[in-house]
């Protein structure tokens, strides 16, 4: 079925439009995950094991869905998580997402492996911005990343801690995906079948990862898979002392992205973090690991009164957001949910997805009988594994 942007009413609609518009290797890079993709699928399915219990007659004409997370006021309780290589998916890349996030008053995360520099993002939006930090073997590169994010006045730093080596992303192995894309017989056929994508990629300004230029060739001038990049360029000796030093050097709102255990959540508090993202990297690293939503309650119980807990992974619906907030998360974030829409239609696509989610959250809050986010609690949740039992 041929799809158009106006026909896209949810994340899965956007996924199908992205698949229609992207060459196979590029689409499967967004869409794929590690090994058998069990964790990837579980990330969303986990929400189905939890039911919402609404209240009625609550007077819900006016709804306020704003939240404050890591010192940032967001107009909606979900933000655009940092993701790499965005100009592979649409020639505007991070520019399009930054403009859309600004329009909806939410935060935008920019990756170390971004394809648009932080300086340009700051010119586009004065809204809340997060810089996602990959800890490289090259300490000079690490220092440069930190300094650029500071000078660009990003408000939040997030250190990704779950990519100490690359996950086994078998779809990328099957398709031969690399960044930048390599021209092979297989890829040429896929590019030829998507001439608009190919025209934009090869005629627009040269693909680059400006935060890495001058420090590493991999991924900028030398085509490698993302798994190869993580395994060869990131520092596998990174430890809690390194994270604590980076937190101190940043001297501001600082989060760890990729926390899944209570023990690690407590240590994040101990080293001075102001936030953690409960995340398994979208199922792209350790297959068989637990879904963020399944792990959220015990982490919130342990540290939710000391640090801002973000639920990241598998979120596709407004009801998913309300369930995570009811458990105790301060906000939610997602990557694929806006990458599909970026690939589908650039800025207009991202705006459509954020608009769809905002509409869903507002409607679902009214149907739940709440007018503010802080009215949500575990009182309005029940788990299917133990019907009638509150968590």
Describe the structure.
The protein has 391 residues and is α/β, with parallel strands linked by helices. The chain has a single domain, classed as TIM Barrel. Helices cover 42% and strands 13% of the residues. It has 15 helices and twelve strands. The protein has helices spanning 11-21, 24-31, 38-45, 94-103, 118-124, 139-151, 170-175, 185-192, 195-203, 226-233, 240-250, 262-270, 292-303, 318-327, 336-368; strands spanning 50-52, 67-69, 72-74, 78-83, 108-111, 129-133, 156-160, 253-259, 275-278, 308-312, 331-334, 381-383. The strands form three sheets. An eight-stranded parallel β-barrel has the order 4-5-6-7-8-9-10-11, surrounded by seven helices. Strands 1-12 form a two-stranded antiparallel ribbon. Strand 5 (108-111), helix 5 (118-124) and strand 6 (129-133) form a beta-alpha-beta unit. Helix 1 (11-21) runs antiparallel to helix 15 and helix 14 crosses helix 15 (336-368). The longest helix has 33 residues, at 336-368. The radius of gyration is 20 Å and the shape is globular. The N and C termini lie far apart (43 Å). The mean pLDDT is 93.
